[in-house]
Amino acid sequence: MAGRQIIEELNEVFCDVFDDPQIKIFEAMTAKDIDGWDSLNHINLIVAVEKRFRIKFTTKEIMSFENVGQFANAVESKLSHMAQKG
Amino acid sequence: MAFNSFAFFIFLVFVYVLFRMSPVRFKNGILLLASFAFCAFFSIQAAWVLLAVSLINYFCGRWIKSAREGKKKVFLILGLIFNVGVLAFFKYADFLIENLNQLTGQNFDLWHILLPVGISFYIFQSLSYLIDVYLEKIKPESNLVVFLLYMMFFSKFLQGPIERAGQLMPQFKKRFALDRYQSIQGLELFCLGLFKKAIIADRLAILVNTVFDDLHLYSGRSLALAVYAFTFQLYFDFAGYTDMARGIGKIFGIDLSPNFDQPFLATTIQDFWRRWHITFSSWLRDYLFTPLMAQFRNYQTLGMIAATLSTFFICGLWHGASWNFVAFGLIHGIYMIGSILTLKKRDKIIIELLSSQQNFKSPDSINEANGRFEVGKEKLNQALGISPMIVRWVRVVVTFHMVAFSFIFFRSGSLSDAFYIVSHLFSFAGGRGAVEVFSSTEILILFIAFGLMLNSSRTLMSPGALVSAKKYPRYVFYAVVINAILFLGVKTYAPFIYFKF
After folding, report:
1. Which of A66, B10, B38, B116 could make a disulfide contact with B46, Cβ separation 3.0–4.6 Å?
2. Residue B69 has what pLDDT?
3. Which stretches of chain A sit within 8 Å of chain B by CB?
4. B272 — contact with chain A (CB < 8 Å)?
5. How many domains does the structure of chain A reveal?
6. Complex ipTM value
7. List of residues 6+ apart from B227 with CB closer than 8 A
């Protein structure tokens, strides 16, 4: 799974978007595990993550995420790609 | 040869005996031949269209997988254009020509193309298959028979459920482990479906058709009763069909997805669409709404409105090539937008009210109430002296009426009929009254329909519960259901409503 710092920051975004400070994300977590994670909040989550990490997801990526682990990995790979570009 | 016809009964028994007797390696082949024959009973041309569409999608899925990274999208788009094109050609060509004629004053001839049975359902399955392959959620199917069964399996291609490849295909690949328990469950589900269709839906259809065929003869009250009756008719017709389809699936060891979860007990419109025609609404959510929202995500509220209206426009148009279905879809789109836009404000009002209550002064408890909205609402209602149960039922009744209102557009033959009903619902003058239209049997059926709606489908009407019940109560229940179908069921053949879609 993605690095610790990314997971922590991602967790904060989840808490903000779903308005629940108790959320603790984990790799296999899916929409079923969080109250209110519907299709609309899925997009709100994407927008919030894009803003926080200053990255951009493609529509294909947005439709592909099946759990938090995949989502976190995509964030990490985008960040490392940006760092390489420098 | 619909599920509620005698010919189908003979067909089913024949296929089942053949299926049971054949060695495992021939079972899929028998199901495929039976599926093709079933489709050909309706029309041989429809069967060829289904086969051709299935074959093209089979190859398209493989091309998407084997293409180079940049070319994958090209194959996906070609596949999507092909499928949408086929649906548009067969279903919407005349509708387009009619509207073009009206707009331009021209007089182009209509094509009068016969709609191949089940096309709206299986085209949606091909689209989701290609998209899932492109998104790498599934691998393209290499076994042609398995793929063709995914598209053509006779218990579901006519009217759904709209299955996902990842859910259905693996079931055709595993060795069929048929057990008595599953076959009995399947038969029970089939009978319960027939009960819903022949006793409730078809009996309600008699009075619905009487009123809707001659709207101008009836008073506002009769129109309103017909609208309620149609709301129940549509549900029991389609839920009955789905039970029968799933029952047949189970008899052959295949689990098809459920389509309904007590939709008239929904507390909001969002909740309704999570419970009504679930395989269709989840398809729209995953393959239309989500990508549209992804595209429009930076336009905030405007983006949400555009994505929601577009999704429900397609939802309406999918049901039929006419403006009343478009209106049905748009009404739900407007309901949905209203609900989404006001939800946060409603939350806020409740939080403010909560914070003014003595027990909710600490910011933590406000946050908690915000996060746990249901709990917050309950506490608020208690503070105001309103039972949460009453609030829940008010919401159920309001949602039910919003849905019933939209069904006026679903049932009416044209927009002008729909507007006539809407404008005369509350007129009490003249026309035939309810008593003249409704016989006591029909009123009784309405009560039964209402009772079944309230009764959890997970208890009395659940086949699983029946199989595990004791022998004698079970036999009594069978006897009641079979006698009811024989004596109360409508004998003349009536097609399923969703069949024409």
Report:
1. B116
2. 86
3. 18-22, 35, 38-40, 42-43, 46-47, 57, 59-60, 62-64, 66
4. no
5. 1
6. 0.90
7. B404, B405, B407, B408, B411, B421, B425
